[in-house]
Amino acid sequence: MARPLVQSKADVLKNFESFIRLRDSRKPNEVKQYQAYLKSAKVLVVEKVNGQREYAPSRFIGYRNNSIKEHEADVDKDGRTSNGKLERLFGRIYYDENESQRFAIFCKKHGVDKDIDGLSTPVKFIFAGYPPSTEASSIKPRISSSAGSPDDAETLNSMKPLVGPKTPLNQILYGPPGTGKTYHTVARAIAILEGVSDEELAEQYPIEKRAALRQKFEEYQRASRIGFVTFHQAFTYEDFVEGIKPLPPTKGAEEADIEESDTDNDGNINQVGAVQYAVRKGIFRQMCETAASAVPSDEAVSLTRPSFQELYTGFLNLLQERIRSTKGPVIFHTKERYGVQLTAVNTKTGRLTFQYGKGKEIDFASQLNNDGTYSHVDKSKTEKLYHLYSSIDQIKHLKRDIIDKVGGSAKSLQWVVFNELKKFEVALLTQQRDEQQTKPSPRFVLIIDEINRGNVANIFGELITLLEDDKRAGCPEALSITLPYSQEEFSVPANLYLLGTMNTADRSVESLDTALRRRFSFTEMLPNPEILPEDVEGVNLREMLTAINARLEQLLDHDHCIGHALLMRVTTLDSLREAFKRNILPLLQEYFFGDWGKIGLVLGSAFIQPVNKKTNPGGYKLLSFDKYNVGELNEKPVYKLANVLKLEAKAFQDIYA
Description:
The protein is of the alpha/beta class and 657 residues long. It is built from 22 helices and 21 strands. Helix 1 crosses helix 2 and helix 14 (398-406) crosses helix 15 (411-436). The strands form seven sheets. The protein has a five-stranded parallel beta sheet.
């Protein structure tokens, strides 16, 4: 009889309590069993138990009222079954590099000898009590019919970790007219907000459910999670970010949403005559402020800074583990970028021993190396530095700021130890902050339609650098600037995504700023004839569009094609004629600048007809003038468009026949 699976959060917590009792047991064999389970686990459940972040193998947690006795006795236990149940309760399995690092620290804390970085297949997580990080990748298992191993489900794919790409913060959909760029932004924006792939969203909302998808998009817009703007030639920085705008004289400060910086010392609005002026926020600044307000602030998280003794003890344990587990020498770098090797850690006295080359590079990995110098850094010196400086950046001059203030020698080594200690402290506080934040920051999307039609260098201005991933607020290399009008500090939050569209047939494509190109990820949207019908009153729309685009690539280039969207509403021969008259022919005229003869090379003689000048009523011959050869010029062919509304099906069939 199959063992029952967990049915609720309470069942999961009960199993966690059973698993933790192994760790807290006074019986060495039970503690070893706990460590062995964690070491062999490939999918971990992440849960909050008594206010602490805990990990347990999904195969142990997935069965109801589990115990060591039952777990060991069940030779038929199947990780795929238990994982499937846990996914239905808590969502999909994730690969999360940030969580992997937290789990590595957890393992070391509890004596589990697990080399996280050395695994051929990374560990993965089911998040029960905590959310995945924003960089986490959802994993959709690929289960083959031949898979029958009783191990965890992830072993089915041990040859490759199923890790999806991180969603780019800045991306542009580009392609020829009619390829569905603006249409597709609806689905792409929702996929970004909900943290799923385009394929997963398409499964949930097939084309027949487009109305429901559109309704969800509008709900996100009303909730200010999605913003929309179209660039054009007259669009400026003042429209996009902020600018001084005139106000009607009757409007007061409250009606106009005027900031404090727009008033004088007495609280009056700055005026010139009867005209009032105010700094008005553009859509980009509004979206940035809305997204930033949704990010949990540091003040909202109560961080407990460890004492120096606690910090240094953890630091020594980490260094000792690195010496034990690292294959090869453990190397750090001095302020002058010379390498030094950590050779010994004394956990009793706190002394660290290094080998270095006294101003020269030495090969620490060579067994023949005997010319290095050994020196020590004592705990007392590091403690003095820790209380003197809050940041490594405060140490400008090694002798003056280290030796003269704390004494001793080996100033470069003291700098190395203090630098590594501060890194360790930041990692601990970051982990503490992550553990206390139970909800991820919601995402926001700003859609910029026709992004290449505006002067992007002028519109983004000095903000172009702030768009980079690592320059966003809260990131390691975060930057902020002072806005020119309001004089306020401004940064771009990491939870705001920019989604642009770009028409490659537009002549303004080449003017797209190079700096902007480097900061955006590009997704090409190509014509897709396969979604068109094969028979509309005898006309195969798929073949017709394929033939037209093949000729356009021959005459022009890849960017000047025709998208499938121009034919999506064609269901009858009459609607096909209308599509040609209103959409396709005007576009071809623009492509060839009125050279209708080339349009004939694409569509055929039924669409473009030569004008017979001799029989054409009202036709006029050229007059004689100076040295021009009027005879030759009179022979130049002239073409006109046929009345496409009167064409028969054969004219359209001949395009691809």
